[in-house]
Amino acid sequence: MAQEKFLPIQNLQEWLGALSREHRVLVPVEEGGGVVFRPFEAGSRPVLSMDATTSPKSAVFPSSHDLFRFEQTKDPKDPERVSLTLAPDIPRTPTVVFGGRPCGARGVMIFDRVYLGGRFPDPYYQAARENTLFVTLACESPGNTCFCHWVGGGPDDPSGSDVLMTAVEGGYVLQSVSERGTALLDGDGPLLSSDETTTKEAAAARARARASLGPATDLGPAQESLLALFDDRKFWEEVSEKCINCGACTYLCPTCYCFTITDEACGLSGKRVRSWDTCMSFQFTLEASGHNPRPGKANRLKNRVGHKFSYYPARYGGLLACCGCGRCIRKCPASVDIREIVIGAIERAGDNVREASNG
Amino acid sequence: MPVLKGKELRIVGFLCNWCSYGGADTAGVGRFAQPTDLRIIRVPCSGRIDPLFVVKALLNGADGVLVSGCHPRDCHYAQGNFYARRRLEVLKRFLPVLGIDPARFEYTWVSASEGQRWQKVVTSFTGRIHTLGRAPRHADADLSLARAAAARSHPAADRPRLPGKAQNGAGIEALKERIKAELPGLDCVIGWQQGFDAIHHTPLFMRSPEDVDRLVWGPLNAHNPATYLAAMRERKVGLVVKGCDSRSVVELLQEKLVSRDRVTLFGMPCSGVADLSKVHRALRSSGADPDRVDAVAVEGETLTVTVNGTSHPMAMADVAAEKCLHCRFPNALEADCFVGDPLVPAAIAESPPADLAALDAMSLQERMAFWRSQMERCIRCHACRNACPLCVCKDHCVAQSRDPHWISQEDTVTEKLFFQVVHAVHLAGRCTECGECARACPMDIPLVALKSHMNRAILDLFEYRAGTDPQAVPPLLTFQVEEKRINEGD
Predict the structure, then answer these.
(1) B409/A contact by beta carbon, under 8 A
(2) Looking at residues A275-287, what average pLDDT do you find?
């Protein structure tokens, strides 16, 4: 049963404190010039006025994680005989990610299809996901880089969130989305109250936010257009010209889920580490022979855009692997704009079709 | 159990094969008693010792590192130790900025016959490390120290100023005409255009006169177009450069990474660019969201940013990039075409850039905590490296090499800091402090401070500023038999 409760702003700290007794509560805090998710501690000042610099994905998909530790032990009587012990490390800490935006939580849905959807769910991701709740804050108005409504989301899109908060006069209305979200709100009775006026106020605020969005660009044709332009080298060279091939876009992206696995060993013991990888890197597709099917930045940017707007949707029923949060645009050192590339691709493919039919 | 277990410290010694290793052998043959803390690694020559060997050891748990080679003028390979001397001296001066006590590192010269001298060197160095005790680690640094250091206010030294008066792009039309005239002979010309919103400019690759019409000039042209140059060295390209950008080009020319006849440089006097991090901070302190900028206007020395209909005027001096406040070269140092009257640099503030000044004011422990707190935020996107005009290895960076395995994939403070040390050390004597590393950093880590510190050491040791003279040889690619500023020791 969905719940809507009012959290007065003066109770926020106490509520987070109460949550942190049983959970690792990650809140967005200012650090240096950025806003990052850090475990809540007394005195933490969550930044709720803007979206965090980093995405909340690291709660379920850390930037590096030890899959298991290994240790080889030599038999002192017969050093030729070596025994191996493996100690897997499945993340099961109950976690609440507080104060992200709906787009960030929506990003985790993109992960779910990949890591939980098939015949072989990823046990590490699964454990982390089952133990993590997302409490998100609905946006009031879009920023210059926001385009959530182009990709199927919205300022109050609840998909991916367990609890959706809406800022109202004097506090927040917390609306449970999932069953686990309902259970979370059931817990701390005295700090939360039920109040119909604030519930109505929140609904009005969310409606205002939806109305504040500009018209959405239809990205429907992107899936076909990007495939049609797959061999259009000139197009990809043009759009990638200013890209410097760093991984800022992929590592900040709430939906980029690629990883690499390495063994980090010292002597007879070590660990197998899974860490974020980025398709912007030369090493991403480097083959053992030395051949690299994606030698230049045009190939790599093509992959990033194509994956999000064509290959992933082709596989998962038309769903785009982009949540429209705009981090990749906002934080790109060269201000590469993924919206511009996708729109450009749709136009270019359209032009090609017209030319072909005329010629 | 060895009697010294628990009392021994971890000291790593890098010894050259021909002199110092022989010297250690002589000491052994002569039965000179020595402390046992030192683990010796034999290398062919002190010139083989990459300063990064030393930093890697110190960051990963060594309590001290000792390097020893043949006496200067006595190198088995004639010159190896002359190069080594410069590198190791630079390293010694670099260590404190990381929070590492420079006394934990020493370099010295011991010949194969000097068994007794070797005994003295080892005994005194080991004694020194025992006095210092176990080396603290960055990963364990007390973060409250970093917070305390950040909260300390710094007395404003001589207030830095911007060079000349803001230009507002006067002369841009003349510049466009010159570019259009040169365009037919060039593959492209790189400049800037308006980006996705009012506060962002973005690199522009001009191929047609219509492209040239999109060229803009002003304080939002923060990107260094020289970043793209090395990858395009096979082509004939034009570059619109600010004074600082031209220094990167000069450095690339010095290192023969690009050839002069393939580059056409267009310059205009620059009166400073805005640091968007500072603009963001100013906006957020007045409650405005930096992602909702509607308009930007530059008038005189004021940058006015409009957010949600509210104007936020900012003095350029308050939001200018740090490099601009210390700018010596507001005009391109190399230009085939320079439009406008060259600006005279303002009286240059002798105080170090703000980030370095803040580090200078910290104790070693505080610096260690500072870098821990900064590196915890690093996402390893390598934007710092890829934005750097002088990081020309790009796809083949040592950071990604598995053999040798310089850096692991673990997301730890030590690994991430070590990468920054790799960057700083590989740029020693080459970095022009264009600030792209810090500007590109999505997490706002003040990375340029490491390079500023390195450059200060280079200036002090070799009286050298990178990227100012196309004919000059970078200081770590050469040596003097008698080094004026390096004490040769006993």
Answers:
(1) yes
(2) 96
CATH class for domain B11-135? alpha beta
Whether B482 and chain A come into contact, CB under 8 Å, resolves to no
Q: Inspect the interface and report whether the beta carbons of A36 and B443 lie closer than 8 Å.
A: yes
pLDDT tens-place string over residues B184-240: 999 999 999 999 999 999 999 999 999 999 999 999 999 999 999 999 999 999 999
Position with higher pLDDT, B240 vs A32: B240
pLDDT for B303: 95
- The residue with tokens 């010792």 is B49
Residues of A in contact with B292 (CB under 8 A): 141, 143-144
For the entire predicted model, the pTM comes to 0.96
The B residues from 291 to 310 touching A (CB cutoff 8 Å) are 291-293
Q: Which of residues 220-279 of B touch A (CB under 8 A)?
A: 223, 227-228, 277
Express as a percent the part of chain B with pLDDT over 70.
96
Confirm if A105 and A139 have CB atoms less than 8 A apart: no
Tokens of residue B175, six digits: 């510049």
Given B205, B436, B444, which is nearest A242 (Cβ)? B205
Query: Which chain B residue lies closest to A63 (C-alpha atoms)?
Result: B411
Give the residue from chain B lying closest to A279, CA to CA: B381
Structure tokens given for B443: 């997490």
Name the residue type at position A145.
T
Is the per-residue pLDDT at B402 higher than 80? yes
For an interface test with A, the pick among B224, B401, B410 (most A C-beta atoms closer than 10 Å) comes out as: B410
Is residue B321 less than 8 Å (CB to CB) from chain A? no
Q: Dig out the tokens for A140 from the structure.
A: 């009031």
Using CA of residue A218, residue A219, residue A225, residue A231, what is the dihedral sign? Answer: positive
- The two three-digit tokens of residue B284, written as one number: 């957020």
Query: B169 pLDDT band (50/70/90 cuts)?
Result: low
pLDDT, mean of residues B373-390: 97
Contacts across the A-B interface (CB distance below 8 Å): 141
- A282 contact residues in B (CB cutoff 8 A): 394-396, 400
How far apart (Å, rounded) are the C-alpha atoms in residues A280 and A250?
Answer: 8
Sorted by where each begins, the domain ranges of chain A are: 4-75+82-211, 222-358
Cβ-Cβ contacts under 8 Å, B386 against chain A? 244-246, 333
CB-CB under 8 Å, A337 with B195: yes
State the complex-level ipTM: 0.95
Domain ranges of chain B: 11-135, 140-156+351-477, 172-280+318-338
The answer, yes or no, to whether residue B154 has pLDDT greater than 70, is no
Which residue, among B308, B295, B195, B286, has the nearest Cα to A141 in the 3D structure?
B308
Please tell me the distance from the alpha carbon of residue A16 to that of residue B166, in angstroms, as a whole number.
49
